[in-house]
Fold this protein.
Amino acid sequence: MNKKVLIILITLIIIIGIICGIAFSKNTTKNTSTNTQKQEENTTTNEETNNNTNEIKENVVNENNVSENTQTTTHPEEPQETPKTDDEKAIEIVKKDYGARENIKFTVEGTDSNGKIVVVVSDINTTAAIAFYHVDISNGTFIKE
């Protein structure tokens, strides 16, 4: 009988060992796939972070280039930025002549046959045109109608 009990115990130990080995290998596979997914997510996150960092660096470089190329004239009393487009330059010329007031709007309507920019001064409330300016931005002159 002792031999039978010993054989049964050894068989049970082997069966339990096989079951544990199978369960352990499944956990290892799950952990490996989970670790692989985490590594892929980390890699993707790192790549996105690197891309964002590069974009920020490019934006800073581009902003620095713009600020180096842009010339601004400032008065001690009134800090101003020079207009960038022809339309903005024309509106600035008209504002200097007409004056900036409340309820007044300056809009560019296009160009006339002589190539001058037409700026309309209008009332914001009624949208009625108050004055028309034909502005030549190359020399800063205008004709007021």
